Amino acid sequence: MSFSAIRLEEKQQAFAELREIKTLLASRGWFPGTSGNLSIRTGEFSPEQFAFAITASGKDKSVHTPSDYLLVDQSGQPIETTGLKPSAETLIHCEIYRLTGCGAIFHVHTVFNNLVSELYAERGSVPVDGVELIKAFNIWEEEAHIDIPILPNYAEIPRIAELVEGAIVPRIPGIMLRKHGIYAWGANAFEAKRHLEAFEFLFEYAYRWALLKK
């Protein structure tokens, strides 16, 4: 694939979808202090070569500017001349795309996803049993049980990226970073949003249920 083959309309579509989801999630307070990042893959895909649009680093996601997004390659490097920097966590997106071939990845920081990641940190995963929203992941067994993986939140992003492959569970489209936040993905922006919303509901449920059991 040549990155020059990414059509202008594909780039514009990705940026438009990112703006729409950014507006929605910002309205919920899921990007405190410029945190979080969003990306949408564009163009053709192979595990060795692909491109995606991602939010630029350090931007207030509650407002819109002409410099909110940029295109990067499979190594997280800009593929167009730009002064923008991709999100500091772009390498994690690179690994998730490489391993899953998904179409979009959304990462947010919320109080409940931070709390539940600490609550179950030693276990290494967030357990959820029989909650209806598990069906959002196309898991239809009655009283289904899932475990949402938790990875350590190292300061060096490459150290986290190295752990992604071993953490991905085929039917769970998400990975937690301890006291940091959730990365949720899907085949497209709509599916990634559905998965993200389901995860956030399940995190609040898991935390409140753990308190009730004490």
What is the C-alpha radius of gyration, as a whole number of Å? 17 Å
Enumerate the spans where pLDDT stays under 50 for 5 or more consecutive residues. none
Shape call:
globular
- The helix content, as a percent range, equals 25-40%
Helix/strand-derived category reads alpha+beta
Largest sheet: 8 strands, mixed
Portion in beta strands:
15-25%
Number of strands: 8
Total count of helical runs of at least 4 residues: 5
The termini sit apart by 55 Å
Oligomer: single chain
H/E element order: HEEEHEHEEHEEH
| Spatial strand order of the main sheet | 3-2-1-4-8-7-6-5
The average pLDDT value, as a whole number, equals 94
Structural overview:
By secondary structure, the chain is α+β, with helices and mostly antiparallel strands. Helix content is 36%, strand content 23%. It has helices spanning 8-27, 90-100, 111-119, 157-167, 189-213, and strands at 37-46, 49-55, 69-73, 104-108, 125-129, 145-151, 174-177, 181-186. It has an 8-stranded mixed beta sheet, sandwiched between helices. A hairpin with a 3-residue loop joins strand 7 and strand 8. Helix 2 (90-100) runs parallel beside helix 4 (157-167) and helix 3 (111-119) crosses helix 5. The chain is globular, with a radius of gyration of 17 Å. The termini are far apart.
